[in-house]
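My hope is that you will study the record closing this message with an eye to the fold:
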Amino acid sequence: MEAINDHAKSVAIILVNWNGLEHTSKCIASLKEVTYANVQIIVVDNGSNEAEVMSLREIQGIILIENEKNLGFTGGNNVGIKYAYEEGFDLIMLLNNDTTVDSGFVEPLIAGFGGSVGAVQPKISSMADPNQIWNAGGTMNRYIGLPITIGAGEKDTGQFDEIREIDWITGCCLLFSREMVEKVGYLDNTYFILFEDADWSIRARKAGFKLLYLPQSRIYHFESATAVSRKKGKEGYRSARRQYINIRNHLFLVRKHVPLIFMPFAVVHQSIKISKYLAYYIIRGRWGKFKATIRGVRDGLGKFKEIDFGS
């Protein structure tokens, strides 16, 4: 696909880095091969170690914003969104740093805008197996407030090759307009990470915007690069901290967006889910995750407030 001229819409692509230089560098390298001309890569570093920051400073062709501490996925991206919006970029993209992209992935995304479309996403495949779907859009069970990823883990046989409107759009890769910032606002910092994209999507749809899945655009995701340890510890591969955030944030999402009439269904669902977690952790002796789940329930039912994990 031929490059679009420099007078086309300007696109800011935001990557958040937190001690993930290996992934970030590969992502940047793939972005430098895109065929769309009017793109600016913005890397927001979330308080990584000094050696990583020094390396990032040496990368040509990017704008580097350095945060003093880890502001999470939400806080880091919000810093980037604010910068891109104030600099006048027409479109803003959030892109996970543990991805690589097809060189022509930008053009189909831009072509998807029109009418009330406020944000779009590509087809996302597994980096380990490009024939396996990681995300083909999202649907939402509104009765219990459960975001569901379409096609996750399925073999890609072309079953998700049609453009469709979706309920929620993944923060792994989404392109949105300036109008979205003006009418919907930023990511909710109370989430830090997890469920923030579903929350933002629901807010966007309530504001009258449509969200689209555009499979003509494709990227590849290194699954759980920051969520799962490569070594199994006494708490398994996922950390107790991650479990805490998962429980807490899902309860936040339910409380914010499930209609009161459906809340009994959401309560039953959450009670069953959390009980299964607790029973499993008792059986496996994973007391860190057991305690994290209890804390997640406590805080998820408490006051909406930001968490601070520092650097």
User: Anything to note?
Assistant: The domain at 11-221 is CATH 3.90.550.60 (Spore Coat Polysaccharide Biosynthesis Protein SpsA; Chain A).
